[in-house]
Design goal:
The chain is mainly alpha-helical. Helix 14 packs antiparallel against helix 15. Among the domains are: 174 residues, Serine Threonine Protein Phosphatase 5, Tetratricopeptide repeat, CATH 1.25.40.10; 144 residues.
């Protein structure tokens, strides 16, 4: 639901607080939920964000030489075989560079990986693969590759000095990757190392300013949450997170849940660590499993508190997330809870129960690490129940429950980000039905703030599917439902530069759709692609670097396929 009504009489005896205190609770929770939702949307949309190309992020085109490697060639007949390996690795690097220049980053990674299997201590290959990972927003992999460069560079006498240029690139790229996963302290540390190597680097200084700016914004956002001014101030300045969490275990009052959320928001790391040490997660799981909360169609904020506490507890902490999944069967718990709540809502329109469902969806979506996402998908219940009992029912509510549908698509996009994701198999097997549901969303969508967020997550989800060839072939096939492309291009043609994020995502969708595919079987798609140059003229007025970069990439795609697209006859559409 977009907003909540509070006209109904509430169960004051259960809340054990005055009406003024209840208003304060509602006020603060709404602000906290809005802040949490904003962070989740930013996190999900960033999964398909093409990074601005810094000068130091360019791939190396120089040939692989013996001196690029930290090891020495043996003085024997084996040296001839080593030279052949180097030559083959150099050929693979050139292929990778070509793929990279054509924005086919996934294929570039495959070429660099194959070359690294031949020469494992070549810093150029590690650096090139790192920037390819960055282009695909696979920042943790980029961090690992940059760390490998620094490990190699530190081997041997004077090795670091000899590899100063490569070390500078590794520090700067790793800093950027840390920045994108909100590890600001580590990012600043790497930037400082890069500036020691090159004190005059404008790229490093610019990145440092961006990181510091984000640090300030994060602090301000947290301060805004903490400094909510209620109608009658709840005296929480004296609340000690240890005392509050200790009371939470006793569960004397529903208000203890709210206090627990407060201290988790204010003292995130310390409170979460204390919560972990005291095995607070076990009490929280009991509360979620008890299913005793009273669900109303117009009021459910208190029922959402367990999900919100779970989000605060697990955010940015892989240890807590992995423990929740492995030790406490957290995936089963959340899947069953969501299905149970959907049954309670029973397809009612505008029921506040859907707000509670959204909070539990967000509790799953907060777990963004690749390893954790794989753990989620490896759960048998998730694989068998997610599509039929969660994805389809929620998608059918897109007209009345926009925020819930947006959160679901955000979760689906994150789960599909890895090409080896098991849920992709489910979506592929249900592809035709899924596309029909997508078309219904596109037909009903109107360009507004709420529907724009929905469309961003929808195309983000589809874009992530398209990193795999079998999905691209489905979209490009002759028998693909042309209604999808009709709705897609209708939306694209209506966009102006105020809908920046949606435009970014739609252009990104087309990039993923077209690369590595010179033959397009869908005649309707060919027909619509011919209209792109006129749209590009309009969109090129944008000052957004991501939009301009994607237009440039698409223009190069169209230029390569110019004869095929503009000289082939198509049937009347």
């Amino acid at each position: 639901m977009q907003s909540k009504d509070f006209q109904l009489q509430l169960d004051f005896q259960a809340l054990r607080e005055s009406q003024i205190q209840l208003d304060n609770i509602i006020d603060q929770i709404q602000k906290q939920k809005q802040s949490q939702s904003l962070k989740l949307n930013q996190l999900s949309s960033s999964n398909f964000e093409f990074t601005q190309t810094l000068q130091q992020f360019a791939i190396s085109n120089s040939p692989i030489k013996d001196t690029d490697n930290n090891s020495k060639l043996p003085n024997s007949k084996d040296s001839e075989q080593e030279k052949l390996k180097i030559q083959k690795a150099d050929d693979l690097k050139k292929k990778g560079n070509n793929y990279y220049c054509n924005a086919n980053y996934q294929q570039a990674i495959l070429m660099y990986t194959e070359a690294l299997q031949l020469i494992q201590d070549n810093v150029v290959l590690w650096l090139n693969r790192a920037i390819s990972y960055i282009k695909l927003n696979q920042f943790h992999q980029a961090i690992e590759d940059c760390s490998k460069v620094l490990e190699i560079a530190n081997q041997g006498k004077d090795a670091l000095k000899a590899n100063s240029d490569n070390c500078f690139k590794a520090y700067l790229r790793r800093a950027f990757a840390y920045f994108k996963v909100n590890q600001f302290a580590l990012a600043l540390s790497d930037i400082e190392q890069a500036l020691i190597i090159d004190p005059k680097s404008l790229e490093a200084e610019k990145l440092k300013m961006d990181v510091e700016r984000q640090c300030v914004q994060k602090q301000k956002s947290q301060q805004e949450i903490n400094n909510v001014t209620p109608k009658k101030k709840i005296v929480d300045s004296e609340l000690n997170y240890q005392d509050v969490i200790d009371n939470f275990f006793q569960q004397k009052d529903n208000f203890d849940l709210f206090r627990a959320l407060q201290v988790m928001q204010k003292n995130t790391d310390e409170a979460a660590a204390y919560f972990y040490d005291k095995k607070g997660i076990e009490t929280l799981i009991q509360i979620i499993q008890s299913d005793e909360e009273v669900q109303h169609d117009q009021y459910n904020l208190m029922a959402s508190l367990p999900a919100m506490i779970l989000q605060c507890y697990q955010e940015n902490n892989q240890l807590y997330q992995e423990q929740f999944i492995r030790k406490y069967n957290g995936v089963d718990l959340l899947i069953q809870k969501i299905i149970s709540l959907l049954d309670k809502a029973n397809n009612k329109k505008n029921s506040a129960i859907y707000d509670c469902i959204k909070d539990y969806i967000d509790a799953l979506n907060i777990m963004t690490d690749n390893k954790i996402r794989n753990l989620i998908q490896s759960n048998p219940n998730f694989e068998t129940k997610f599509y039929s009992q969660i994805f389809c029912p929620i998608l059918s509510l897109h007209q009345t429950e926009i925020e819930l549908t947006t959160s679901l698509l955000s979760l689906s996009a994150n789960l599909c980000f890895d090409v080896n994701s098991s849920i992709r198999i489910v979506f592929y097997n249900k592809f035709d039905d899924m596309i029909i549901a997508v078309i219904q969303i596109l037909e009903n969508a109107k360009l507004s703030l709420s529907s724009c967020n929905l469309l961003v997550q929808l195309f983000n989800y589809l874009s992530n599917l398209l990193i795999e060839e079998q999905f691209r072939q489905k979209f490009l096939s002759q028998d693909f439902n042309k209604e999808f492309f009709k709705q897609f291009f209708d939306i694209l043609k209506k966009l102006d530069l105020h809908f920046k994020e949606l435009l970014q995502i739609q252009l990104g969708f087309l990039i993923n759709l077209l690369y590595q595919n010179e033959i397009i079987h869908s005649e309707y798609l060919i027909f619509e692609l011919r209209t792109l140059p006129s749209l590009f003229a309009q969109f090129s007025l944008s000052k957004d670097a991501i939009i301009l970069e994607r237009i440039e990439i698409l223009q190069s795609f169209l230029q390569i396929r110019k004869y095929y697209l503009f000289n082939q006859k198509t049937k009347s559409n």
